[in-house]
Amino acid sequence: MKAELVRFGVSLEKQLRDNFDTLIRERKYTNRSEALRDLIRRALVQRTWGKGGDVAGAITLIYDHHHRDVLTNVTDIQHDFQKIIVSTQHIHLDHNNCLEIIATRGKAEEVQQLADALTSIKGVRHGTLGMSSTGREI
Amino acid sequence: MKAELVRFGVSLEKQLRDNFDTLIRERKYTNRSEALRDLIRRALVQRTWGKGGDVAGAITLIYDHHHRDVLTNVTDIQHDFQKIIVSTQHIHLDHNNCLEIIATRGKAEEVQQLADALTSIKGVRHGTLGMSSTGREI
Amino acid sequence: MKAELVRFGVSLEKQLRDNFDTLIRERKYTNRSEALRDLIRRALVQRTWGKGGDVAGAITLIYDHHHRDVLTNVTDIQHDFQKIIVSTQHIHLDHNNCLEIIATRGKAEEVQQLADALTSIKGVRHGTLGMSSTGREI
Amino acid sequence: MKAELVRFGVSLEKQLRDNFDTLIRERKYTNRSEALRDLIRRALVQRTWGKGGDVAGAITLIYDHHHRDVLTNVTDIQHDFQKIIVSTQHIHLDHNNCLEIIATRGKAEEVQQLADALTSIKGVRHGTLGMSSTGREI
Questions:
Q1: Where are the domains of chain B?
Q2: What was the pLDDT predicted at B40?
Q3: Residue D51, exposed/middle/buried by CB under 10 A (0-12, 13-18, 19+)?
Q4: Which of A66, B30, C124, D9 has the most beta carbons within 10 angstroms of its beta carbon?
Q5: Closest Cα in chain B, distance from residue A38 (Å)
Q6: What's the whole-number mean pLDDT along residues B102-111?
Q7: What is d(CA A129, CA A107) in angstroms, rounded to the nearest whole number?
Q8: Which residue among B58, B99, B132 places its CB closest to the CB of A56?
Q9: Thinking of the domain C54-133, which architecture would CATH place it in?
Q10: C95 neighbourhood in chain D, CB within 8 Å
């Protein structure tokens, strides 16, 4: 299904438009509308996270699977939050280190809580939360 | 294999230590050493990304798979960078929207380039880059 | 008045300590305690902003003072929030552009509201908020 | 002097425009062009910092002026970098704590170096760098 497009005019200072066109070329956007859509979507996704709306997110964890209890604890917490976990990808970085990437979907606050709970597990050495979108608001 | 532990003394203003202990309890760290290890690792991972060292990262993309050519373009670029892509997780968010999470490993600059190239594809509506670690420096 | 110092032991993996020592030398910290104090204070300041506590902050604004009404609007809003504004520094960047730096002190939420209100004024072209501390929690 | 305005058309998915209009109302922008100009300027300022161009910035420092040598060191380093320092604002937060806000202008890399040098001084308890603009590129 093709989304309905609407069109409107924008006025900018000439120099601001020229500098924006340089940025558009550098980032290889196909045209100004495409670049502006990206800026707008980015602002909308930030707003959704700020307001605690429905989000998607990717949590990364680095842990040493030899560390006592870490596998059990990472798995236990994921089960506590299973309602907001979609799937998990596990990568063997080397003999000791695992990278686990957990795809989540839920309320922003719950996703943040899950990320915090996993990151503070003893044996989990680093965690990040990629703040993405369900696609609804963008 | 258990990593060798070393021990050293830290001196802090009493009030700073008390406030840190409050933060440790809130975040449910098991003890001060565990909390400090986390702060140190976080600083080291930032440094590795800043210096352009070897990193791991999770790129998230939101796109509408009905959008003409988006699937082809997302796949083509991943093949151009296949040397630094470990695996890809694809989630059907709804009838239109896909969440794709790409596990990467390589030089920080290449991983950033891949994230930028994928995010600027027409039809990709949002992208994030979770800056993680190969586990080596932490 | 000299603050009371307390001392405690920290245990780290040897490799983590070695990498931390490299970072300490690069950043020219005088010793490990000083570097750890910095990491702890940074975490405490983030926590204070997150919890909505008492903060200090520096708001920067870039605006063209020729732009109709911008000076009036920037000043009016500062008066609405005068309770949390300590002082203002005004720098003439060139014939058109002004950099105004507003030192604030208050509840995190109010300081953020002031920064948002000033940034969205027509004629204000850029705004940032430096999230600092009253010094109490660190 | 009034800058020359140029006008061009933008096409968006209807739903994206509706969500953007909600955000515009919330942030109290006067119209879509004003909101888009802000998003564009923000992207251009980030690009200038990323490319190492000419920037303006506000460095905040929190320090205890009773701490031995801190005043001397903060002042010495400012003199080493005096070429890029425009002015300094000093606020007495309480009996012990000072907030110093340093308005800077120069190459992004030098401003970052100054911020790092000041933040790692023993006795400086927190530092931030507000990444602003000379107004030229926006």
A1: 14-51, 54-133
A2: 97
A3: exposed
A4: C124
A5: 7
A6: 96
A7: 14
A8: B99
A9: 2-Layer Sandwich (3.30)
A10: 1
Please answer yes or no on whether C66 and D34 come within 8 Å at the CB atom.
no
- ipTM value for the complex: 0.91
Distance CA A8, CA C35 (A): 53
Residues in D touching C27 (Cβ below 8 Å) = 116, 120
For A38, the token pair is: 């990206």
CA distance C99 to B74: 42
Q: Count how many pairs of residues, chain C against chain D, have C-beta atoms within 8 Å.
A: 148
What are the tens digits of pLDDT across the range B54-94?
999 999 999 988 888 999 999 999 999 999 999 999 999 99
Which residues does A126 contact at the CB level (< 8 Å), separation at least 6? A60, A61, A62, A119, B41, B42, B45, B132, B133, B135, B138
Question: Which residue, among A119, C138, A135, has the nearest Cα to B14 in the 3D structure?
Answer: C138
Query: What's the confidence (pLDDT) of residue A2?
Result: 62
Q: Which chain A residues have a beta carbon less than 8 Å from that of B105?
A: 91, 93, 99
E strand map for chain C: 5-13, 54-64, 85-92, 97-107, 124-133
Which residue from B6, B12, B19 is facing C14, i.e. has the nearest CB? B6
Range B117-130 burial, b when 16+ CB lie within 10 A, else e:
bbbbbbbbbbbbbb
Answer yes or no: do C41 and D131 touch at CB < 8 A: no
The answer for C65, left when phi > 0, alpha when psi is -120 to 50, beta otherwise, is alpha
Q: Can you tell me whether residue A20 is helix, strand or coil?
A: helix
Query: D93 and D99 in contact (C-beta within 8 Å)?
Result: yes
How far apart CA A68 and CA C118 sit, in angstroms, is 52
pTM of the full structure: 0.90
Number of neighbouring beta carbons within 10 Å of residue C136:
17
Strands A85-92 and A124-133: unpaired
- Ramachandran assignment for A69, one of left (phi > 0), alpha (psi -120 to 50 degrees), beta (any other): left
Q: Which residue has the tokens 């490799």?
A: C15
Percent of chain A whose pLDDT exceeds 70: 99
> Which residues is B105 bridged to in the sheet?
B56
Chain A residues in contact with D7 (beta carbon < 8 A): 9-12
pLDDT 10s digit of each residue in chain D, 138 long? 567 899 999 999 999 999 999 999 998 888 999 999 999 999 999 999 999 999 999 999 999 888 889 999 999 999 999 999 999 999 999 988 999 999 999 999 999 999 999 998 988 999 999 999 999 998
Q: Is the pLDDT of residue C2 over 80?
A: no
Neighbors of chain D with 3 or more C-beta pairs under 8 Å: A, C
